[in-house]
Amino acid sequence: MNWFFITLGYSGLSPKAPGTVGTLLSLPLGMLILIYFDAQTLFLATILISVIAIKEINKYEKKSGIHDDKRIVIDELAGMWFALSVAPAISVNLSEVTDLQNGFLVQSLLSFLLFRYFDIAKPSIIGRLDREAKGGVGVMADDIVAGFVAGILSALLWQGWLQIQNLL
Hints:
The chain is mainly α. It has one domain. Helix content is about 75%, strand content about 0%. It is built from seven helices and no strands. Helix 5 (about 105-120) crosses helix 7.
C-alpha cells in the first residue's frame, strides 16, 4: 500500500517525466472533486493526504536511504490539488466544465502549467524548501508552496483578464 500511495497508483514509475505524469493524473481527479463536491472538500482532502504522505515518505526514506526519490509523486498531487483549491475554487456542473466564461477549465489548466513551472524551476522559497527541508516534510513542502503560489497567480491572472474584458 505504501508504494502504491506514494507513487500515486504507480504513475511515478513512468520512465519519462514521472512528476509531470503524476501531476497530469492529479489534475482531472482534483477537477472531479471540485465538480462533485467543492473547494473546501478538495482542500481538506489535500491536507489529509499530505499528512499521511509525510509519514509514509519518512518510512520509505528510512528503509531505502533515498531522499526525494523521483518516483514519489504524491507530492505532485498535493501541490496540484492545493492549486485547484485556490483557483478555480468554484463548483460547476459537469456540463459547465467547458464553458470558458466561468473560468473553471481555464484556471484549472493555468494552475497546472504554473504549478509545473514552479515545481521545476523552484524559485525563491520553493527552492529553499526543496534544498533545506528534510524527510517527508522536505519532499512535500516545496510542492505545497508551489501549488499555493500557482493557484494564487492563476486566480489573479483570471481576475485580471476579467477586468481587461470589462474595460473593452
